[in-house]
Amino acid sequence: METDSQSREAQAGRHGRRVRRYVRQSHPARPGLIAALCSITLVAGCGEDPAGPAVQIFADSEHFHFQSTSALATQAELDEGISRAEELWNAIGTFVGVGRLPNRRITVRLDGDKRDRNGGDHIDDRGVVHLLRRGPAFGGYFGALAHEIVHALRYDYWHQYDSWSWPNFPFLDEGFAEFVAMQVDPAKTGFPYYWFNPDVVAGHWLARGESIPPATLRDRHRELNTKCEHQAYPLRAYWLLYIEQSWGRQAVLDIVYAEVPTTDEFIANVLGQDIEQVDDGWAAWLLSRYAAAPGADAEAEEFRSHFDGIYVCRVGTDF
Ligand SMILES: [Zn+2]
User: Fold this and answer.
1) In the predicted model, is pLDDT for residue 238 greater than 80?
2) Same structural domain for residues 123 and 234?
3) Is the pLDDT of residue 14 over 90?
4) Tell me, what's the pLDDT at 189?
5) Within a domain: residue 120?
6) How close is the Cα of 144 to the center of ligand 1, in Å?
7) Are residues 103 and 33 both part of a single domain?
8) Residue 48 pLDDT grade (very low, low, confident, very high; cuts 50, 70, 90)
9) CATH number for the domain that contains residue 73
10) Among positive and negative, which fits the CA dihedral 83, 86, 87, 92?
């Protein structure tokens, strides 16, 4: 139900698309009543916000509905997000095939600063994308926008097949989100590569003997995904990149948009090779990419010293 008390047409968006913006009061303003309450008792929030109560803010485009409140985001952030999301819609549609895009608008919520919240960017059980704001060097709200939108555009597929219950599927889906994101949004500066060469970030885990075997990541996804995130996210994305470079993009799409359970046997049938052989080929290929990156060892050292607080999962301890 539309209950906006104010709405206005903004000027055409960055790409000539009309972007509608709404500003809605989250609560009817009763300044006299609020002032009276504040004067006789301690009311939560009294005196906290000289600009007045937070208002809900929105930005809408053809394929997205961005929402937040004035306490958690700015209208400029919503407008930037919706412009970038529309670009990503087109790029991801080209990547996966427009027939795989949903016939509905995707909702994206900007939930405030990461430092104030537990958890991370995610898709909720209704398919809504939730983003947290990091510092500017980490992409602000949008360091993981491409990754999360890839997930969100697969929501209907997940539910059609209940594919998250399949063997290997969590590994494949997480890998695919990052694999697509790094190709459609190569300028992104957020997790897991930040501003470093992705070949170096992914490859240095192997080069230093700190990789997690793909079979372990496939079999123990729920246990290791978050705990070992700095290893798991780039290693999985490069596993799919290896398949694309060796077998072609269609092989990747046949696997990640499977209509039958994604067992080891299913993947071997698509590729014509046992999954253990695929894993061995991937490791050799990723090591060669790392070795070919100019100044790889020095850049890896810089990456690790910059993030020397990150948790590194170890064989014998974590897996
Ligand atoms: Zn993800």
Assistant:
1) yes
2) no
3) no
4) 86
5) yes
6) 9
7) yes
8) low
9) 3.40.30
10) positive
Highest-confidence range of 118-132, 187-201, 259-273, by mean pLDDT? 259-273
Contacts of 304 (CB under 8 A, 6+ apart): 204
Of the pLDDT bands very low, low, confident and very high (cuts 50, 70, 90), residue 51 is low
Sheet holding 122-123, edge to edge: 6-12, 18-25, 55-60, 64-69, 106-113, 129-133, 122-123
Among 28, 33, 35, CA closest to 6: 28
100 and 126 co-located in one domain: yes
Please count the structural domains in the chain: 2
Q: Are 99 and 240 part of one and the same domain? A: no
Q: Ligand 1 mean position to 97 CA, how many Å?
A: 20
Cα 180 to ligand 1 centroid, rounded to whole Å: 11
Residue ranges making up the domain that contains 60? 6-157
Residue 257 Cα to ligand 1 midpoint, Å, equals: 16
pLDDT at 9 over 70: no
Ligand 1 centroid vs 48 CA: distance in angstroms?
35
> Is there a single domain that holds both residue 55 and residue 147?
yes
Do 140 and 283 share a domain, yes or no?
no
162: left (phi > 0), else alpha (psi -120 to 50), else beta? Answer: left
User: How many Å lie between the centroid of ligand 1 and the Cα of residue 305?
Assistant: 25
pTM (two decimals)? 0.84
Could you tell me if residue 317 is inside a domain? Answer: no
Q: Which two tokens stand for residue 205?
A: 């885990």
Q: Cis ω on the peptide bond leading into residue 102 (within 30° of 0)?
A: no
Among 132, 157, 182, identify where a domain stops. 157
Q: Choose one of 157, 182, 205: the last residue of a domain.
A: 157
CA 214, 253, 280: angle at the middle one, nearest 5? 25
Q: Indicate if 32 and 112 belong to the same structural domain.
A: yes
Report the pLDDT value the prediction gives residue 119, as an integer from 0 to 100. Answer: 81
CA of 122 to the centre of ligand 1 (A): 7
pLDDT of 25 strictly over 80: no
**314 pLDDT higher than 70:** yes
